[in-house]
Amino acid sequence: xxxxxxxxxxxxxxxxxxxxxxxxxxxxxxxxxxxxxxxxxxxxxxxxxxxxxxxxxxxxxxxxxxxxxxxxxxxxxxxxxxxxxxxxxxxxxxxxxxxxxxxxxxxxxxxxxxxxxxxxxxxxxxxxxxxxxxxxxxxxxxxxxxxxxxxxxxxxxxxxxxxxxxxxxxxxxxxxxxxxxxxxxxxxxxxxxxxxxxxxxxxxxxxxxxxxxxxxxxxxxxxxxxxxxxxxxxxxxxxxxxxxxxxxxxxxxxxxxxxxxxxxxxxxxxxxxxxxxxxxxxxxxxxxxxxxxxxxxxxxxxxxxxxxxxxxxxxxxxxxxxxxxxxxxxxxxxxxxxxxxxxxxxxxxxxxxxxxxxx
Length: 359
Fold this sequence. Notes:
mainly beta, 13-stranded antiparallel β-sheet, 23 strands
């Protein structure tokens, strides 16, 4: 009797650890990813995003930074599960400094979809789709009727899974974690139309796909994240989870993807993130640390933004954040690569909006 009781309690604990209090899945170690299915949507998790950022080069030195992101957010309502689809698109014209962005929000089935079988997400006339049997994707998006993006992306390095045993931890709680899949280098080409001018472009992009049921835990107020694509063929992903007292959470991490696609993770005490310069938003007064220094293993890089104002001002969701194209400068002052930098939680406490109670 005692043995059966212990077994029952053990199973109960295990089952509880695999789901949140309201029944959403928690990332589990050792998950066997199956593709293309796992490129698609995972409605058993509360939150999911497909995040594409990149740098594009046109003719005569013309340069652009772009972002196209699709989010799926689930919520419980009277015993039913509703899926909301948020999307962001943005373009920076580095020559003029003009930053154009747009945000959309729709319910599943109401002009927004995400396939569970493969990568095929859409929100209105914005779409991100994977060609069957390939590692080639297509993006189509307009931005405030001023910009039209039509891009083809193809993986030139293998897909990587960040974290330990398939789980990327963001905090001490088991719920503060995600499954984090990334194409760290995508050869990109297509057209960028700005007004009446159409620009043939080539470049490189980075794509994150994360699914989880909570990315923040008690005491955390936001994060700083960066993706670096270096000229020497390596990539670096780094995030700093910020606590209320301004310190970095011990679950912050840095990962280096070598030239062959192998990943090396460094703990929070093995790298340093330094603030080198700030910019104050004229819209909400938030101060973003838009120039960052990253040091690890004897190497040092500076992230230098192509323009100061690359703030997504959160029109619909009221969740402003800074997402910007940057150059990567090495310790000798030379251009070492390109990057994207994300700064979230500086315009109010992000946890107030992302906690289960806020939903």
